[in-house]
Amino acid sequence: MRAAVAIPVVLLAIVYTRGWLRISHTRRSAGVWARAALAIGGLGAVMVALSSPADELAHELFSAHMVQHLLLVSVAAPAILMSNPLAATLWGLPVWVRRHVCRLLAAASPARRLFQAVTFTPVAWMAHAVVLWVWHLPLVYDAALDGRIMHDAEHMLFFTSALLYWWPVIAPAPRVRIPPPPVIVIGYLVLGAFQTSALGLWLMTRSHALYAAYAVTPGAWGFTPLEDQAWGGVIMWTVSAVVDIAAVLAVLFRFFAKDGQRASAVLDPGPPPRDNRSVDA
Q: pLDDT tens digits for 159-181?
């Protein structure tokens, strides 16, 4: 277990849990427990991806490396955002840190304006796509596997770009801009699934192994480098597609649920107005 990963994740879990315990005393509901489970599950996915045997296996198998990336991008990032962790995290911090963070999130602050810019749907989508494709270029990919610092930078960028990608879809606090309408979100997710599937298809259909880093361990786990690469493409394609389709269905469900509530409110006139006049008058 890598201390450089484990220590920050454990500290974040402690801060979140401390704040969640303070909030849960005033908000006892199933939603509070669900958010806690999502937050801890997301942090757990980060730990599994970066500080477990999976991290070592990623240096031997390209397909294992794709599983590692998908844990960060398609599991950890959306799970943490769905937990809506800002309030619990703030209440878990020391008072002076909480005040400083609140000043950074103030309406007129440069940090808030920057955050508004990077969570704008075209910017978030493009940032995620660029990070995904650039780090799979053979020259960049092999360089990342050769050095721990660059490899850690790769994972940090994957996770950060995934948070930006999922932000317009999930819209957690702080809500620095009005969430896009469902039709925009669905188009955003479909295009995201398309570009991820395109990368997976590109990896699957190459006639030669792209990455020299895996050529030094031919036949690892019974796979040739080319077979391993093809399986990595299959994993990327299928897992990303399933997650994006699930997200599209969730957006549709949320939209129709709200639309049904609005229709019920229109059709139900409510109780008749009370007539305070006496019947005998």
A: 999 999 999 999 999 988 888 99
